[in-house]
Amino acid sequence: MSGPDDTARAERLAAALRANLKRRKQQARGRQADPTAGESASEPPGGGAPGEAPATPTPSRPDEAS
């Protein structure tokens, strides 16, 4: 099972994991340097999580308003 293809695959995987770790560390350093920069970019305009229902639902018809 461990042939030249497996070795090459393992090397590619190790390189990809190192690159991912390096990128995530750089992102974390950027967040620590400017903590307010990530807040507005990561949250949708209405607040809450993406796909989450709004806190006050808007009626679909005017007669449903209370």
TrEMBL record:
It comes from the Bacteria. Residues 17-66 are annotated as: Disordered. This is Uncharacterized protein.
